[in-house]
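Chapter review. Work through the record for RNA-free ribonuclease P before attempting the end-of-chapter questions.
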Amino acid sequence: MLDTTALTDLQTREVMGYTSLCEGMKAILDLIADARLQFGISCYVPYPSVYKEMYEFASRNGCDREVTAKIDTWLVKKSPDRYRVDVTSQIFHEYVSYMRERINRGMGVAEDAIWEAATECLFMENPQNKKKEYREEVEREVIGGIIGKFRNKYRAALRYGILDSAPDIDVLILAKELDAAVIASDYGIEKWAEQLGVRFVPANTFPMMIKEYLKHGPEGKKEMGYEDKKKQDQSEKADFN
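Structure tokens for RNA-free ribonuclease P:
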């Protein structure tokens, strides 16, 4: 069961040697394709929530149609059965959506207060015409940076380690329904996967796991046999010389 972070995690890309997000997504999806063809391993994605999130993420970051085609081809889209899984899934789902909305609303109120207080303090002693003249520049150059730092700290304080989006809960519900492992780099998902008795695999180890499977599959053994023969031929040639 893939969360969006299974394809987009920065640490995973660094481990695999890719700097581009799109190239990293392609590489992981190619591994998933090989695993499905050689071992019949199916990687699911909750539909429409996580699927839509992945699709929009790829489009927003300028990935070409090949990436979205791979998502459509090699990931199995399935809607979680929120009413039959043995947790109060629908209530849980609505609660998470509600909490996300309230967290964002709270952040918006705080941001408005920061903007208002900062601009009033900056222009307290300036005439009104000067205030209008410099307001846009000051907001962009000074207050914008402060707001950015505030958002990062706010999210770290309130959202780290909790389920704060509908796609997060869809990943867990569908994994529970299918008895599947969850692939993600989200501490909130990891924490709740443990609570629900769902297997969890960190996104940055997932590609290596697939490579290990493939190494011992028919194609991998064939390639290893070729490499062994090549080494043997080189050894014999060296002995002859």
